[in-house]
Model the fold of this input.
Amino acid sequence: MSADSATLKLDNQKNGWKGVCIHQHANGDCYLCPVRALGRRILHIRRNGGDDKTYLSAYWENGGRRYVTHNHISDGLKLAAATLDYPACKGIPIERIDTHSLRCGGANALALSGYSDRQIQKMGRWRSATFLEYIK
Done:
């Protein structure tokens, strides 16, 4: 794969924005590059009979197409938190961990890495300064 960037169009989002495009640049990493990861997803989908209308969350199991859901992600986060003993080590009850934890954690990681508030707001697609509640 030799693309140096990719653009995703999000038809609908929780924040109500429709038709928003997100552009990613390749970072040169063989495995952790977002553009290469997208390319691998598309190749996987095409190899399994998907087309340009197939969601990126598609996977195939027992000969049938399935989709990763909110519950799959939520259950995986809760399992990881339980495995890492978050209630005892971090004081975070398992029932408080959900998919929104990814947005909170992502905003915190960006802030701790030195990104500006404006950069965090843009990367997280926040319309308001709500994200500041997570990082300050």
